[in-house]
Amino acid sequence: MDNCIFCKIIAGDIPSDRVYEDEDMIIIRDINPQAPVHLLLIPKEHYADITCLNAERAATLGRCLNKLQDIVGNIPQLKDGFRLINNKGEFAGQTVGHMHVHILGGTAMGEGLL
Ligand code: 5GP
Ligand code: ZN
Q1: Among candidates 94, 69, 89, which has minimal Cα distance to 79?
Q2: Which atom of ligand 1 is nearest the CA belonging to 32?
Q3: C-beta separation of 100 from 49 below 8 A
Q4: What is the DSSP letter of 47?
């Protein structure tokens, strides 16, 4: 998708710190980390947000999430836990219109969500 920063990162037109890549997704370090470890799981297919899922996209996202246990297992800072966040829309603070999941960890975040 033209003018999508994450599509440009996936294509390699914008550099990123890639932690993982396969046919379905990339996982990169967030440029503006909100925790000691802040990763972004980004499906390679462009779609705007989680409400744009269909059966195929849901299956792909399921494969991606299923791989997290192994990927996260290779990051010692995440051994005590991590948090997944998906923002949809303005009120949630979504700034990039290419569906992605934040992976946050490396510190005790407590029980409050906000
Ligand atoms: P959102 O607010 O849409 O849920 O999250 C977008 C995230 O993308 C933000 O945490 C922001 O820091 C990150 N981000 C925006 N542009 C870039 C970039 O060029 N490279 C990387 N690695 N992260 C980016
Ligand atoms: Zn995109």
Answers
A1: 69
A2: 12
A3: no
A4: -
Q: Determine the pLDDT at residue 65.
A: 98
Of these residues, 38, 46, 98, 100, which one is catalytic?
100
> What's the CA gap between 25 and 65, in Å, rounded?
10
Question: Which atom of ligand 1 is the closest one to the Cα of 14?
Answer: 19
Residue listed under structure tokens 């705007």: 48
What is the rounded distance in angstroms from the CA atom of residue 7 to the CA atom of residue 26? 11
100 is catalytic: yes
The full set of domains in the chain, from first to last, is: 5-105 (3.30.428.10)
pLDDT tens digit sequence for 37-77: 999 999 999 999 999 999 999 999 999 999 999 999 999 99
Query: In this structure, what token pair is assigned to residue 63?
Result: 């494969």
**Cβ < 5 A residues, ion ligand 2:** 1, 4, 6-7, 46, 98
